[in-house]
Amino acid sequence: MAGTGFADGVAISEDAFAKINLALHVTGQRSDGYHLLEMLVTFTRSGDRLDFIPADTDEFHISGRFGGALASDGGTNLVLKARDALRMAVCDAGGAAPPVSIQLCKDLPIASGIGGGSADAAAALRGLMRLWGTPLPAETIDAIAIKLGADVPMCLASRPLIARGIGERIETVRDLPVFAMVLANPLKGVSTPEVFRRLATKTNGALAIVPGLSWLDALRSMRNDLEPPARALLPEIAEISDMLRDQGALFVRMSGSGATCFGIFAGVAEAQAARQALLGKRPDWYFEATETLAGDDDDRR
After folding, report:
1. Which of 85, 98, 141, 180 could form a disulfide with 271 if both were Cys (CB 3.0 to 4.6 A apart)?
2. Any idea which residues are catalytic in this one (predicted)?
3. Residue 204, SS3 per DSSP
4. Which pairing describes strands 169-172 and 261-265: parallel, antiparallel, or unpaired?
5. CA nearest 25: which of 217, 206, 175?
6. Residues 24 and 168 in one domain
């Protein structure tokens, strides 16, 4: 991760881990238009970083490889929405939520299917709860998270899980192992609404973990129902998936609605070597070697 950007020490720091959909099954659609999903989700040690320090007035600074893409979004950034929603809840509970300077180091690609904005919002909630020191009921935090976005409750947990509904019903998966992984993105956007619009069937089979299978075999028995329409919209998804396989990935799939794909490798050394080879072929694309968090990993910072 990049440095903090503050000259004197940082009061609070939080990692915003990349969210990876190991599987994503679309099982229906509600009357309000929201799709019903069943997802097996994990998180990588790569991601963005947020730093928080008390200040005289609220400040928000963005740095990092992809920070420039967010520089003009004004007050629409989910970090600011998370700050404002949490401040209101803290004050309603009789606590104090004084001004804070927030530095977001944006190292994840924008709108790439790995929960970057949602992870940032969740990290803002975690960091500000620590900074302001006012305990709130879990249901209050959960309500804030789901209002910020369907992925935010998952990112707030930042541990391997199964999510159902629109993402709000979460079940921890404690036996999911660590995977060595390469994240790959051609740095071209794909429209999530258009991906869902092109989905041929919206009542697909449920996600099921078959007892007795290795985790890799279990993943092979699952799907990402959004990958076929995303590939039709952006051919580079197929190209980058083939590149991961050519470098020895044991398993390859697209995450979320794309365009980030992941390849699982035998170990960290193999993932790092694959990343270097892939960067040599396409230095203008995004490749990151990383590890996922274990289901029983409590080291979240």
Report:
1. 180
2. 19, 151
3. coil
4. unpaired
5. 206
6. yes
What would the pLDDT profile of 216-232 be if each residue is shown by its tens digit?
999 999 999 999 999 99
**Catalytic-residue membership of 106:** no
DSSP secondary structure letter of residue 164? E
Report the domain count for the chain.
Answer: 2
Residues 97 and 165 in one domain: yes
46 is in an annotated binding site: no
Give the chain's radius of gyration (CA, Å).
19
In terms of domains, do 159 and 184 share one?
Answer: no
Do 160 and 188 lie in a common domain? no
Whether 248 has a binding-site annotation, put simply, is no
Q: Is 68 annotated as a binding residue?
A: no
The answer to whether residues 77 and 165 belong to one domain is: yes
Catalytic residue from among 48, 120, 151, 225 = 151
Active site residue 81: no
Of 15, 19, 107, 120, which residue is the catalytic one?
19
Average pLDDT over residues 146-173: 94
The beta-carbon contacts of 3-8 under 8 Å, at least 24 apart in sequence, are 3/105, 4/51, 4/103, 4/105, 5/51, 5/61, 5/63, 5/103, 5/105, 6/51, 6/53, 6/101, 6/103
149 marked as binding residue: no
Q: Domain containing 150: what range?
A: 12-172
DSSP state of 224: B
The pTM assigned to this predicted structure is 0.91
- Report the percentage of the chain scoring pLDDT > 90: 86
User: pLDDT of 111-153, one tens digit each?
Assistant: 899 999 999 999 999 999 999 998 999 999 999 999 999 999 9
- Tens digit of pLDDT for each residue in 20-50? 999 999 999 999 989 999 999 999 999 999 9
109 marked among binding-site residues: yes
256/235 same-domain check: yes
